[in-house]
Amino acid sequence: MGLGLIIPHTDAQKPKLTLDFTKPGATVSPMLYGLMTEEINHSYDGGLYAELIRNRIFKDHPNTPEGWSLVRQDSSSNAAIKLMAPTESNVLFDERRHAITGALTTCLRLTVEKANGRVGIANEGYWGIPVKPNTAYRASFYIKGSGSVQPPRRPGSQQSVAPQRPVIEDNTAGPIRVTIESNDGKTVYASGTIDLAKSIYWKKYELTLTTAADVKPTTDARFVISTDRTGLYYFNLVSLFPPTYKSRPNGNRPDLMQMMADMKPKFLRFPGGNFLEGPLLTDAFPWKQTLGPLEQRPGHKGSWGYRPSDGMGLLEFLLWCEDIGAEPVLGVYAGYSLNGDHIDAGPLLKPYVDDALDEIEYVIGDVNTYWGAKRAADGHPEPFKLRYIEIGNEDWFDRSNSYDGRFNQFRAAIEAKYSQLICISTIADAQYPDLKVTTGKKPAVLDEHYYRNSWAMWENASQYDSYDRNGPKIFVGEWATREGAPTTNLIAALGDAAWMTGMERNSDIVIMSCYAPLFVNVNTATTTAPKAWQWDSDLIGYNTLNSYGAPSYHVQKMFSHYLGDKIVPMTAENIPTQPRPLTRRDSADGKTTPPLVPTVFYSATKDEKTGAIYLKVVNTLGKKQPVEINLMGIGKVSPEATLVVIKGDKPEATNTITDPEKIVPVASKIKGIASVFTRSLDPYSVSIFQLQIGK
Ligand code: AHR
Question: What does the pLDDT read at residue 433?
Fold first, then answer.
């Protein structure tokens, strides 16, 4: 840690920030900083959810076994793989009975007519299988074997019920090899064997594959199940789990969980976002079918162009909250979906309201309730903590004006059963005055969403300064400065930081906020798999092996770590401005003079118990800016302080999967703090001063 330089203050025109300790500050919302999540950018499948097998129940595509391929050690082997969907017609008699449960109705058939060496099926994982040294992977799968049988005739029928097939000798019983290996098959990183029983019925097999200590980490690997015998082999629910966070079965990636825990989030908003709503009314997040054993989870359509496995189900979301010490903020489906369809308030909406009540009962119901008992049976008898329910998502897209009725029907039913719960409206008065909820009492909390560039963030960073203190509280349920892809860059982080100073200064009304999207799998398209992300400018990037935080991630962490419980009122003088480039909207509005936006942003909070002051200052210019800091009415202040700075040399500077720590905060000790002092802010920087009073 170096000692920072304090410049003596002389220049009267220099920017000046005054922290006014003579006035009592409002209380900082204890829920101010949280997280928002949904299945986008392979956030769960191929992301947080630790499952490594892509398309484990073969339902990702109706016609082809995406993610799977045939492995033949010798090209003279005669073998093929085929997707066996329930609608498949050209099948053998036995094969018409290949469902394991109502969810596992599609399987993969490996036909081996001639085997010269090993023949098998390979899964490519989510852009590779992550190989790490000294690691135990838990593999499991359903398999059954048979030979080709001549189909029996129906009694009295001359016609067979399925086409004739060549007889393939049934040699399926015996050892089946399971490996994690390089994509060219030349290097085996971990292997094991199961003994396939002679039976035409499904059986689940489990085994552990362990890598050696000297294995080099790689993503250039696949998962293979192979045989060297002829026959027909059928597979379903093929799964491979590496170690998970807190060793939870069906759990999450430790690195990503740790990154979130490090942010100290107060809440997690789930399951969306668009993912809550689904493209059509029939595609809303089907929470009931995300419960229980994986054998009962068919997955569903999702909202972002790929099919979620729903391994990350309602209970997993709740456990995730528990594991990182965050409170769930539950979004319930409110009868509006992305294609614009909605269900009007009234009897037709009632099943949806009932479904939300069931969902809430699953989360907080006593074990004597139907859904509370179900949660207990799923391993969690204790109700979860829950105070906030969000009714829908972004219902301003519903231009039919039906939200008022829908919101009120949900709110009335929820409050009648759970008077302690607070219902959040997804339509903010300020943003959509024509669509807002007008019937009945005002919603207690409104969710506002902002996706902007850095200029717009700077221009609007003070918007909450003038919000009505007697109006509803604000939940900024999605926001981000969208610059940089797949993760944000430095200038986006400076947009974020400026915006956060505005939320923090006003956290008497902005009670909660969460950045979105949280996660992105950064893989680009390969010959077999598409690009992994759908949304640019995300917070935490990863591939199957490694992860990193965007500059915005580090800013989020800084803001939530260095936060007091009282807002310190502040004033600013002589803040330099810069002209914001004119936008297309400006031209449409006839604006010809560029508006001026500040170049320094600030907020301060105080910890009442410890006397620590956290002053946050953002410099958006590419040059140093001296700022005078005036601690008005502070009494005694320690001459030493901690200064944490995140900065970079150019706006587009960023972190990547291969260069993950280019832009990170650095803490140092500084001296010379007094009731008035001057500090030169680094170019393109966010600085947090942790000052100490009373000592
Ligand atoms: O965060 C990405 C998407 O942006 C969310 O799914 C949606 O709510 C918003 O429009």
Answer: 87
Spatial CA neighbour of 259 closest among 533, 690, 664: 664
Q: What distance in Å separates the CA atoms of residue 486 and residue 539, rounded to the nearest whole number?
A: 9
Residue closest via CA to ligand 1's atom 4 equals: 273
The pLDDT value given to residue 2: 31
38 lines ligand 1 (CB under 6 A): yes
Count of C-beta atoms within a 10 Å radius of residue 586:
15
Ligand 1 mean position, distance from CA 449 (Å): 9
CA end-to-end distance (rounded Å), the chain? 22
Per-residue pLDDT of 335-365, as tens digits, reads 999 999 999 999 999 999 999 999 999 999 9
Q: Are 330 and 357 in contact (CB under 8 A)?
A: no
∠ CA 640-641-645 to the nearest 5 degrees?
140
Rounded distance from Cα 273 to ligand 1 centre (Å): 5
Higher pLDDT, 1 or 211: 211
DSSP state of 538: B
Q: How many residues does the chain have?
A: 695
Whole-number pLDDT of residue 538? 98
Gap from CA of 387 to ligand 1 centroid (Å): 23
Model confidence at 1: pLDDT above 60: no
Which residue's alpha carbon is nearest to atom 2 within ligand 1? 517
How many whole angstroms separate alpha carbon 668 and alpha carbon 674?
17
Q: Are 143 and 193 in contact (CB under 8 A)?
A: no
- Among 568, 601, 570, which Cα is nearest to 693's? 568
**CA atoms of 169 and 115, how far apart (whole Å):** 11
Helix or strand holding residue 541 (H, E): strand 540-542
Query: How far apart are the C-alpha atoms of 392 and 398, rounded to whole Å?
Result: 11
Q: Is the CB of 394 under 6 A from ligand 1?
A: yes
* CA 568 to the chain's CA centroid: 33
- The answer to whether 132 and 547 are in contact (CB under 8 A) is no
CA distance 658 to 288: 40
270 DSSP 8-state letter: E
Q: Where are the beta strands (DSSP E) in 459-504?
A: 473-481
For residues 365 and 377, is the Cβ–Cβ distance under 8 A? no
Contact (CB, 8 A) for 392 and 334:
yes
**Cα separation of 618 and 47, whole Å?**
32
Q: How far, in Å, is the centroid of ligand 1 from the Cα of 307? A: 17
Strand partners, 616: 603, 688
Taking the centre of ligand 1 as the mean of its atom positions, its distance from the CA of residue 678, in whole angstroms, is 42
Sign of CA dihedral 398, 401, 402, 407: positive
Q: Write the Ramachandran bin of 247: left for phi over 0, alpha for psi from -120 to 50, otherwise beta.
A: left
pLDDT in tens, 436-484: 899 999 999 999 999 999 999 999 999 999 999 999 999 999 999 999 9
Maximum Cα interatomic distance, the chain, rounded to a whole number of Å: 107
More confidently predicted of 303 and 5? 303
